[in-house]
Design goal:
Blueprint: H1 7-16, H2 25-31, H3 38-58, H4 64-88, H5 93-126, H6 128-133, H7 139-167, H8 175-202, H9 206-222, H10 235-242, H11 245-258, H12 263-290
Helix pairs in contact: 1-3, 3-7, 4-5, 4-7, 5-7, 5-8, 5-9, 5-11, 7-8, 8-11, 8-12, 11-12
Length: 292
């Protein structure tokens, strides 16, 4: 029977291959956060990505959300609300499919971001992070590896979404626009992950991270144009949706994939993505480094 390397073995092998000026665990503990060369950072990040992928391989159930979420939401909204909302769009269920599938793509990053926060918190509570922080690795590499693996899960969920969307009648008319929409969704999702990584560090339990995520993301999700047009909303709510990043991302994906205005939504999404990353990435890394 063939054997596979454990996640810990993979990480230790990469650390042994790190440059000689990287500190030993004992030295790291005594000297604090000594600067680590960029090449070592990249090597450590790659080892941690492989470790996280090995854990997914050993626990396939961790992929259930990436598989079931796009399937359930697509079928639910298309077959429950598709007829009535499609009529308001000037068509029927087929028209609604073209509207909602790009919107659901905007939700992929949001849901995967929430998952990275709960998983990060569980790693802290299980003692895994104590092991990482005792090793001579770059603190940021732990966070970057988490984001990289969650982006892979998000891309997998997006593929599932598009397959289900095509099966229920979605027509892909602009392949470059589809790829651009996936890239934009990944960009915003990675920015949002920094928020949930911070929550994963500062909150006491995974349930607390989920509850906070629900309170923050539910208004953003339903106060947007993801599921239905905003023209029937009251004026104050329409003003909110104009600068809601999920609404901007959904409208941009729609414009890129099926045609429509793109500029306003694209700039709003890029500004939100850059702002969240610039503010929350340093906070997440600092909280991770200083958590007792």
């Amino acid at each position: 029977m063939s054997s596979h390397p454990s996640p810990t073995t993979t990480l230790n092998e990469a650390l042994r291959a790190a440059p000689s000026n990287t500190l030993t665990p004992a030295a790291a503990a005594s000297k604090g956060d000594t600067p680590i060369p960029l090449r070592a950072h990249l090597r450590h990040t790659g080892a941690l990505i492989r470790r996280n992928l090995l854990w997914i391989r050993q626990d396939p159930e961790s992929m259930f959300d990436a598989i079931l979420f796009p399937v359930i939401f697509t079928l639910l909204f298309v077959y429950v609300f598709g007829g009535s909302i499609g009529q308001s769009l000037g068509g029927g269920q087929d028209r609604y499919v073209q509207y909602v599938v790009p919107g659901l793509m905007a939700m992929m990053g949001m849901n995967m971001a929430q998952g990275v926060g709960t998983g990060f918190n569980q790693d802290f509570n299980s003692g895994v992070m104590d092991r990482f922080r005792s090793l001579p690795i770059g603190r940021g590499s732990v966070l970057f590896a988490k984001i990289a693996v969650e982006l892979m899960r998000m891309l997998f969920a997006t593929v599932v979404l598009m397959i289900v969307g095509v099966l229920v009648g979605f027509h892909i008319t602009n392949w470059p626009g589809l790829l651009a929409s996936v890239g934009l969704s990944a960009l915003f999702g990675s920015a949002l992950m920094w928020v949930f990584l911070t929550l994963g560090v500062v909150m006491k339990s995974a349930q607390s991270v989920q509850a906070m995520g629900f309170l923050v993301l539910m208004p953003l999700q339903f106060g947007s144009s993801i599921f239905a047009p905003t023209r029937s909303m009251p004026g104050w709510l329409r003003n909110f949706t104009d600068y809601n990043p999920l609404s901007a991302l959904a409208d941009t994906a729609r414009g890129l994939m099926v045609g429509g205005p793109v500029a306003h939504g694209l700039w709003v999404t890029l500004i939100w993505s850059a702002g969240l990353t610039a503010v929350m990435a340093p906070v997440a890394i600092h909280k991770f480094r200083t958590k007792s």
